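#struct-help
A.M.: can someone run this one for me? Single chain, 155 residues.
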Amino acid sequence: DEQFLMNKNGKLLSEKEPYEEIYIPRYGLSKVFVNDKYGFVNERNKSVIKPIYDEVEDFEDSLCIVMKKDVFSVLDVFGSTLFSVKTNALEKLSPDYFMYMDEKNVLTICNKKGEPVYLPPSNKVNVVNNRYLFSETDDNTSVYDLLSSRFILQN
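D.P.: on it. Structure tokens below:
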């Protein structure tokens, strides 16, 4: 079945562009699915992020993670790419930090520019209060403060 966008007065906004799926808007953008690809349109049905992605997450803190082939990117609500990385998964840790496994299988914490800020001693990291990264191995425990970009504990 095709789906269409409609304004609050009942006027069809997308009669020329039927979508296979339309999702509830977040940050003024609706996720759309058409021809096996995802993108985003604004409330006037204007494409802000073209449907070229294999996977997209909903916007959170005005950012979303998208994936095309094996490249993950972080986009803002204007469709601008903040950074891209070739990986199997990209996870948002907090409004300003992301985590991914690089091509050498090293866990990397980066800021929203894609700049690495912390390489944990193990591949298991817990986030506390959207600020602290706790990592533990058999012989090492570390706590990293994302806000001040320094270790609070490292032994």
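A.M.: thanks! The chain has a mean pLDDT of 85.
D.P.: also worth noting: Residues 72 and 85 are 5 Å apart (CA to CA).
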